[in-house]
Design goal:
With 500 residues, the protein is α+β, with helices and mostly antiparallel strands. The protein folds into 2 domains: 238 residues, Nucleotidyltransferase, domain 5, CATH 3.30.420.40; 223 residues, 2-Layer Sandwich (Nucleotidyltransferase, domain 5). The protein is 39% helix and 19% strand. The strands form 6 sheets. It has a 7-stranded mixed sheet, sandwiched between helices. Helix 10 crosses helix 17, helix 13 crosses helix 15 and helix 15 packs across helix 16. The longest helix has 27 residues.
């Protein structure tokens, strides 16, 4: 049991475009968070395959842990540097270990095209409705289940002894301990949504090796202590524990939602927008499957009932395309100019598969509008306006459908993550939903990661409501109220265009 006034922990948070290590102090009356190291995450295309540079990510984590330990020692708060370490990342992607415990090649990105056509193959063996009845997972082509089937028959699959999702892989390199954290395992399409265990039925039916799947662990479990060589690399003590957190970044982000009661929807908004509700039981109906909702494990036995929306990826890729053409593309200026553009000119479906791969996103948006008989955005601000209105509409549709399917009323929508800083998107989301939007904290994922660690260490106690009460006391939030519709039915008209 932890007896100090606060715990000092490092939260390693890996996103699809960058990673960072955050240093947090969490105690009864303390909740501080600071970034100590940030590093790029750039996928690498080689031999026609899009890989993650996982060794660069691991190096970034090691550098971040060294910086965190040094920062703590400089302030004199902890002689051994840290009280705990937690790791979260995006979902579905994994590394394969051989019989010696060595990594077999760089993990492949979920944006790679190797899963094209694989869903159809899988559904010939296991029907799509049965898959949903077992796993409750939204049917997406990059889910781990389809990646593993796509890899069948390859030399890498033949040599594989263990599959570790990315946060579990990094934790393995820190501690030498293998395992599969539950919240991330629930995104694979191979976990039973009711029992919270690996589905041996699906694994067998698809001809996968059951030994690939590591023992499950839950948020708050101790994974292990730092190995001696890692302690040397980071300057930390071997007594420092690596703790399981909500290793799917959305699971940690939902812990970081500063909700005062249960009548809320969340939007964890970044490269993806994860839009949904926190429930006590999964929703496994056929209507839920057809609506594209997923049931993922949350903290303390909760269910994250949500829909994956493509998110700010469309804007990020548009800016990257413009900058690659040596043309300035300042985000703040683009957003300010987009706010002054006419509303409801054109709309796209952010979840159209054409927008998933990297590439020239502005050209794809223009082509989508042209193909659907809508005005083509005539300028960059007009294109940004189109993207953000389309995202706001997708947010509103997901919130409305989630309420209906789960019979769970919503009074307020919480937007957390990097997208909470996008004032135009937050206001448009409030307008489209017809509900107040509370934006922040930006660092919800790192805060959720740190809170779960501090509770596991005994520095704080309580359930999710208690953890969130701490956020309400410390977080800086902004409230957006839905504006009266100057053009009644405009959002409904925008949605009607997508239904054509």
């Amino acid at each position: 049991m932890f007896h100090a006034q606060f715990a000092t922990v490092a939260a390693a948070d890996l996103g699809a475009s960058s990673g960072r290590v955050m240093l947090a102090r969490v105690g009864r009356d303390v909740l501080d968070l600071a970034e100590v190291h940030r590093f790029a995450n750039e996928p690498v295309a080689a031999g026609g395959v899009l890989h993650w540079d996982v060794l660069a990510l691991y190096r970034g984590v090691l550098h971040g842990l060294r910086a965190a330990g040094r920062s703590v020692r400089d302030t004199g708060t902890r002689r051994h540097g840290l009280d705990g370490i937690g790791i979260d990342s995006w979902a579905v992607d994994y590394g394969l270990l051989d019989a010696s415990g060595s990594l077999i090649g760089n993990p492949i990105s979920y944006r790679d095209q190797r899963t094209n056509g694989v869903m159809e193959r899988v559904h010939h063996q296991v029907s799509v409705d049965h898959l949903y009845a077992v796993t409750g997972l939204q049917n997406l082509p990059f889910n781990t289940i389809y990646q593993l089937v796509a890899a069948q028959g390859t030399p890498a699959a033949a040599a594989a002894r263990r599959m570790l999702l990315l946060p579990d892989l990094l934790a393995y390199w820190l501690t030498g301990q293998e395992g599969a954290e539950l919240t991330n395992a629930s995104t694979t399409g191979l976990l039973d949504a009711r029992s919270g265990t690996w589905s041996t039925e699906l694994i067998t039916a698809l001809g996968l090796d059951a030994q690939l799947f590591a023992p499950l662990r839950r948020p708050g479990d101790t994974i292990g202590r730092l190995m001696p060589e890692v302690a040397v690399q980071t300057g930390l003590d071997t007594s420092v524990p690596v703790l399981a957190v909500g290793s799917h970044d959305t699971a940690s982000a939902v812990v970081g939602v500063p909700a005062g009661n249960e009548s809320f929807a969340f939007i964890s908004c970044g490269t993806w927008s994860l839009v949904g509700l926190e429930l006590t039981e999964p929703v496994l109906t056929e209507w839920s499957r057809k609506a594209g909702f997923t049931n993922e494990a949350g903290i303390d036995g909760t269910v994250r009932y949500l829909r994956n929306v493509m998110g700010l990826w469309l804007l990020q890729e548009s800016i990257r395309t413009w900058q690659a053409s040596d043309e300035p593309a300042d985000l703040a200026t683009l957003l300010a100019d987009a706010a002054n553009q006419p509303a409801f000119v054109s709309v796209i479906d952010p979840d159209d598969p054409v927008f998933l791969p990297p590439g020239d996103m502005p050209a794809r948006v223009v082509d989508y509008c042209r193909r659907t008989g809508q005005p083509v955005p005539a300028s960059r601000p007009a294109l940004v306006r189109c993207i953000l209105e389309s995202l706001a509409l997708a947010h509103a549709r997901a919130v409305r459908h989630a309420q209906e399917l789960a019979d769970h009323p919503v009074e307020v929508v919480h937007v957390v993550g990097g997208g909470s800083r996008n004032e135009l998107l937050c206001q448009l989301t409030a307008d489209a939903c017809g509900l107040p939007v509370i934006a922040g904290p930006v660092e919800a994922t790192a805060l959720g990661n740190a809170l779960v660690q501090a509770r596991a260490l005994g520095a704080i106690s309580g359930d999710l409501r208690d953890l969130r009460a701490r956020l309400l006391r410390h977080a800086t939030l902004r409230r957006y109220l839905p504006r009266p519709q100057r053009n009644p039915g405009s959002w409904a008209g925008l949605e009607a265009r997508l239904a054509r």
